Amino acid sequence: MIARYTRPEMGAVWSEQHKYECWLEVELAAAEALAELGEVPPEAAQSLRAHAGFNLNRIQEIESEVRHDVIAFTTAVSESMRAKGASDPSRWLHYGLTSNDVVDTAQALQIKDASALIARGLDGLSAALRKLAFEHRDTVEIGRTHGMHAEPITFGLKAALWWDEFARHRARFAAAAEEMRFGKISGAVGTFAHIGPEAEEKICARLGIKAAPISSQVLSRDLHANYLAVLAGIASSLDKIALEIRHLQRTEIREAEEPFSAGQKGSSAMPHKRNPVTAEQICGLARVVRSNAQAGFENVALWHERDISHSSVERVILPDSTILIDYLLAKTTWLISGLVVNVDRMQRNLNNTKGLIFSGQLLLDLAAAGMLREDAYQLVQGHAMQAWRTDGDFRQSIQADATVARYLSETQLAHAFSLERQLKNVHAIFDRVFQPAS
Q1: Pick the CATH number of 8-92 from 2.60.120.20, 1.10.10.60, 1.10.275.10, 3.90.226.10
Q2: Annotated catalytic sites, by residue?
Q3: Considering the entire predicted model, what is its pTM?
């Protein structure tokens, strides 16, 4: 799945080559920080920086024998040093460190890189949603509850709601990504038995991350669980947008649809089909991201100061979730940017029930004019159900009712059926949503 859906930049973050490059950078930063503190010869740290390297195939070859990836890595790096005539400085490689000092700290570097790409994707989608919202701020559409016609809205309000949701996601993601910008160099059980907290802070500072206030042999996995949960929340909102577009594209609605290229085909058997395949893909892959979040929560509880049960899981869920979110953001941005909005169809659907959508306002106006609310409800519902059963004209039926005429003049009745009245606060809603961002 990763190979199929990875975009190049995000794929590079999670490649085996880049993983070991991050491991090596942690090792080199550790040697240099310890040299500053007088615990490693400065010339050894310099030699490591100048000569340390690795061959990915050689690491994999060694790992197949020793069955320990960090040992395979350090062995391969040491071999590269010896090949360059710098075997003595190699004894200072991995000095005072345990495996997860390297693995967890390097993983923080990968997540930092992945998070930068996701943040960029969130910004792009938010810009597309904002543009769509303002383009259709006054495009009238029927609002639906339970899938049934309710009262008028505008299509711009729908897009503004999505934008507002992603404004929160951007803030949540920034906080979750910042929480993941921690490393740990505290040793086998978190006690700094071999190197001290000052060295940890120097190492992490060199890497552009922060030192965890406390850790066991690993960083606490509630951090990772929260990060994955935020990704799952983003996926769910992408699912929400795509699902709405799928509904609006249904044949009997056809108010909006995803782009359909000139040479595209929708069905092997039915040439007329224009299926919302991208929106369906977004909805489907969002489920994978949500399921990965559950696995992240399962990783929080480990035996004592650590076990290895989380490690194999994270090798799947961290790359997959960040890769999928990056992909889904790109797909949803494409979907929103090219969305076909059928304004005429929206107007036709709005008028389909011949005034029924104004029943709520009519009820309020009759009550305000002096009719008991219970009586007004019974009167309006009676006309509404008759119109529903017979496909009749609700407004004409109301206008012919003598009881209604005793309470509402023709002008007042027209006001009860006014679209402008229903939507008079749309611009105020836009101001409330978008002005704080500006």
Answers
A1: 1.10.275.10
A2: 146, 267
A3: 0.93
